[in-house]
Design goal:
By secondary structure, the chain is of the alpha/beta class. It contains 11 helices and 14 strands. α8 links the parallel β10 and β11.
């Protein structure tokens, strides 16, 4: 009798294991990609992505290069996800030509895709910050902060080869010219998401171009580096820094007077809603071709309300 009971238990355990394995195997494999792990922007994106995957019961994996902004590695990660049997991909398109073959492979395998980054012919559905709107909004924030002062501005992006950010800077310059035809763009630079590089390059720009009196960032670390420069030189109230994203570090800089404003991109919403849009596609629902996750100008007086609305921890 004991042997029969033992055999029944063993059979039950085996069946339970097989059912669990099948259930796990039935999970939707969803891969999303970014240029780095963590950080003020991509860290929020990851949280939103994983929260949505958990809500849907999907197997979510966020992949990024081991070296920040390594585009070659980023492209290879997309290829790896395809080889691993991805059901859903949220590609981070930074170079249409370089990624064309990889994305075509995903299309050929019937992988559901919602893109972030650049518009691409292989991906009919896109979510993210509208590059033109972002650039224009940053210009408007700068003009509001500068008032009737002369504008001699330096810009800093992650890498100059980033097509999306270049579009943002182009839109910034165009809107700035509309609002302040007398404004001068002193220099366009890159910092590879390094606050130290941003600080050092801004110091060099100001040394070579003493008229420089303001700075706008298209990379969160660029703004933090510029704020450190302002603090180190004692230029609070004299040199205007416009940051990007609503990172707690940026908000603290605004409280300390080393950053005048920041323009928030909704990174958590971007990561979360990308997954939900992909789910709608898999269920045969119609979704818009382009979903703008939005932007907002945050001034020092807005910080308390923004922190409460977004549930940010200023002590983190």
């Amino acid at each position: 009798m004991k042997k029969i009971i033992a055999m029944m238990i063993a059979v039950f355990m085996l069946l339970s294991f097989c059912l669990a394995a099948n259930a796990e195997g039935d999970k939707v494999k969803c891969y999303s990609f970014g240029v780095m792990s963590g950080g003020p922007a991509w860290g929020q994106y990851q949280k939103g992505f994983y929260a949505a995957c958990e809500e849907l019961g999907w197997d979510g994996q966020y992949l990024c290069p081991t070296t920040d902004n390594n585009m070659s590695e980023l492209f290879n990660l997309h290829d790896t996800a395809i080889s691993n049997g991805a059901d859903v991909m949220i590609p981070c398109v930074t170079d249409n030509d370089a990624m064309a073959d990889i994305l075509q492979k995903a299309v050929d395998q019937g992988i559901t895709m919602v893109g972030i980054g650049l518009t691409d012919p292989h991906i009919p559905y896109l979510i993210g910050t509208d590059n033109i709107n972002l650039g224009r909004t940053i210009a408007e924030a700068l003009v509001e902060c500068m008032g009737d002062k002369e504008i001699h501005v330096a810009t800093m992006q992650t890498i100059l080869a980033h097509t999306g950010q270049t579009a943002q800077v182009d839109a910034f310059e165009a809107r700035l010219k509309e609002l302040r035809p007398d404004a001068e763009v002193v220099r366009r630079e890159e910092c590879n998401s390094s606050a130290q590089i941003s600080q050092d390059k801004l110091a060099a720009i100001c040394l070579a171009n003493p008229q420089t009196n303001c700075f706008v960032s298209f990379d969160c670390y660029a703004g933090l580096g510029a704020a450190t420069y302002v603090e180190s030189e004692g230029l609070q109230g004299q040199f205007t820094v416009i940051g990007i994203d609503d990172a707690v570090e940026n908000l603290r800089c605004m409280q300390q007077g080393t950053m005048a404003a920041t323009v928030a991109q909704m990174w958590y919403k971007m990561g979360h809603d990308a997954v939900m849009l992909a789910n709608d596609l898999r269920n045969g629902k119609d979704i818009p071709a382009n979903t703008d996750s939005g932007t907002a100008i945050i001034m020092p007086d807005d910080i308390d309300a923004w922190v409460e609305e977004m549930g940010l921890d200023m002590n983190s």
